[in-house]
Design a protein that fits this description.
Shape: globular
Radius of gyration: 19 Å
Number of strands: 11
CATH topology of the largest domain: Rossmann fold
Structural class: alpha/beta
Strand content: 15-25%
Number of domains: 2
Length: about 300
């Protein structure tokens, strides 16, 4: 058996198309377009690529925006002032500070500075609490993308045993809250760095979400025959046989494809969905500020 593909690229394109239509209707009705501001601290090449991809994707659906760049040695106070200026700007609907941050800046502090009604990453403590209470304002983008990918492919989540590998604030913990929320109703287990017995827990799961942050961490022996596997990771690993001398891989070993019923590819799975959900959160934030619903 070879797994069917959870095609995030195609689904993200469909979501962007619908968002483009929503934005166009709002502009035709006389509203200003949605706006997204991204603050980038430092010159990390991967972060620069992520920000550029977000900027291009936003522009294609009609979201205006800008990127503010700060030097790598900027102080926390300098960043706070930029965040507070964006909070106070009525023309900014969505605001995010690109991670990772330089070591002199505490990301937990930064999350608390962002206006929770502009927090399109869904990481402000208020938004974390709303999700945990089952009344989310913004769902963090990667967890939202994972659930959308399952639902769009007709994969039943309610009542199913889900194993999440990883407990980060960005993926693992919010995904556990999202999947166990009333109306979604999965039975969730989190496996983390102090957990044991993946060889036992993995084969018990009907759905596995791998967000371990380790290349090809999940192996075939960890997966039940016919399980659904969502691969959140993306890593560049050396490969002399590849044309560029490296290849992209996820947290899931390629051998799992022969055992799973569905699997998300890397690239082209969760990555495009994360950006699509960021755009959706921005359009939703704009709708709340303008007093229109999600389709208006």
């Amino acid at each position: 058996m070879s797994a069917s593909i959870l095609d995030g690229k195609a689904l993200a394109a469909d979501i962007r198309r619908r968002l483009t239509e929503t934005v166009a209707r709002r502009v035709e009705a006389g509203l200003r377009p949605p706006s997204l501001r991204v603050i980038l601290v430092g010159d990390d090449p991967a972060s620069a690529i992520y920000v550029r991809n977000k900027e291009k994707a936003a522009a294609k659906v009609g979201i205006t925006g800008d990127v503010e760049s700060l030097a790598a040695d900027s102080s926390a106070e300098e960043l706070r002032q930029r965040v507070e200026a964006a909070n106070a700007d009525p023309g900014v609907d969505g605001l995010l500070v690109q991670l990772p941050l330089p070591e002199q800046i505490d990301p937990a502090q930064v999350r608390s500075w962002i206006d929770p009604e502009k927090d399109v990453d869904g990481l402000h403590p208020e938004n974390v609490g709303l999700l945990a209470s089952g009344e989310p304002r913004f769902v963090p983008c990667t967890p939202a993308g994972c659930l959308a990918l399952l639902q769009a492919n007709g994969i039943e989540v309610s009542g199913r045993r889900v194993l999440i590998i990883g407990r980060s604030l960005i993926v693992g913990r919010p995904l556990a809250n999202l999947l166990s929320m009333k109306g979604v109703d999965a039975t969730v287990t989190i496996y983390h760095s102090r957990s044991r017995d993946l060889e036992r827990l993995g084969p018990q799961a009907e759905i596995i979400v791998a967000a371990a942050g380790q290349a090809e961490f999940l192996r075939a022996e960890h997966v039940a025959e016919g399980a659904v596997v969502v691969d959140v990771g993306i890593h560049r690993v050396d490969d002399p046989a590849a044309p560029k001398g490296y290849r992209l891989t996820g947290d899931v070993h390629p051998e799992v494809r022969e055992k799973a019923s569905w699997i998300s590819p890397v690239p082209g799975g969760v990555g495009p969905m994360t950006i699509a959900m960021l755009l959706k959160n921005t359009v939703d934030a704009h709708g709340r500020r303008m007093g229109v619903d999600g389709d208006g």
